[in-house]
Amino acid sequence: MKSKIFNVINQIRLSRSKKNSLSDLGPLYHNYSFFGINNIQIKGIFEENQKAKQSIILAYIAYAIAKTKEMTSDEISFTELFCADGFYAMVARRLGCDLSIGIDNNREGFMEKSQTIAKRIGLDNVNFIKSDITAASKFKMTDIVANIGGLYHVSDPEDILMMSYLMTKRYLIIQSVVSLATNDENYFSSPAPGWTWGNRFSKASFDKMIQRRGFKVIDKHFNKLTGNDRLEDKGSVYYLIEKQ
Question: What sign has the CA pseudo-torsion 127, 128, 131, 132?
C-alpha cells in the first residue's frame, strides 16, 4: 500500500516538475501550454497575438503532416522560417514530423533558449540555424515549410515568398501581418507605415500577390491581431499552399 502511495506521489512530483520545467528561463516569446508546460510569457502583444494565430497555424501544420504521410513509415521534415524561439518547429515535431528545423537571424535573441526548451519538453531532432533569410538563401528542402510572421519584416516580400515556395517539397504555410487602414488591392508600402524597415500589404493586395503567383491554395484565413493597436498592424492573413 505504501509503495502505491509513494508511486502516486512521485508521479505528481514528476508532473509538477514537467509543468514548471521552463520556469527558470524567464519570460519567453511563446506560451508553451500546448506541451503541458506552465511558463511566463513576455508581457505586451505576445499573448494576445499568439491566441489569434496559434489555432489556425496548428491546423495547417497538422493537415500538411497528415497529407504528406502516405505510409506510416514515411519520414516527414519541416522548416520554420523567421522562427523566433522556434515554437512551431517544436509543435511540428510533436505532431509527427521526424525532423524539424527553425531558422532565424536571432537579432532579438529569442532563439538563444530554443534548444534548451526543446530538450526540456522532451523533443529530439529539432535543430536551430542562425542565419539571415534572403531571396538568395539556399536552405535544405523539406516536406513542409512555414513562413510565419516573416514576410512583413522584409523589403522584398514577394522574392522571399518564392524562395520559401521553392524550399518546400509538399506544403507551404504562410502567415503575415497586413494593414486594415485600407483594402486597396494595389496597396503596398515599403518601408511599413511609421517604420524605417519592413513593408505592408492590405488584405486584398496580399491576396492578389498570392493569386498572381498561381499557387494552389488549399485554404486561406483572415483574422485580427488583438494585441496590436494600429490599424496598419492589426490584420493577419494565413495561407496553406500545396506544391504543384
Answer: positive
**pLDDT of 10 over the 70 cut:** no
CA distance 112 to 165: 27
**Residue 29 contacts residue 87 (beta carbons within 8 Å):** yes
Grid coordinates belonging to 20:
514548471
C-alpha 66/C-alpha 76 separation (Å) is 10
Question: Between these two residues, 16 and 96, which has the higher pLDDT value?
Answer: 96
**pLDDT of res. 70:** 86
Q: What angle do CA 193, 195, 200 make, to 5 degrees?
A: 45
- Is the pLDDT at 9 greater than 70, yes or no? no
63-94 pLDDT per residue, tens: 999 999 988 888 999 999 999 999 999 999 99
- Name the pTM for this structure: 0.92
Cα dist from 14 to 9, 18, 19, 31, 233, whole Å: 9, 6, 9, 20, 42
Q: Which of 48, 68, 17, 38 is nearest to 173 (CA)?
A: 68
**Domain residue extents for the chain:** 45-242
The helices-and-strands tally (H runs, E runs) of the chain is 6, 9
Contacting residues for 58 by C-beta, under 8 A, at least 6 apart: 34, 91, 95
Cβ contact 52:236 at 8 Å: yes
Mean per-residue pLDDT, 27-53: 97
- Look at domain 45-242 and name its CATH class: alpha beta
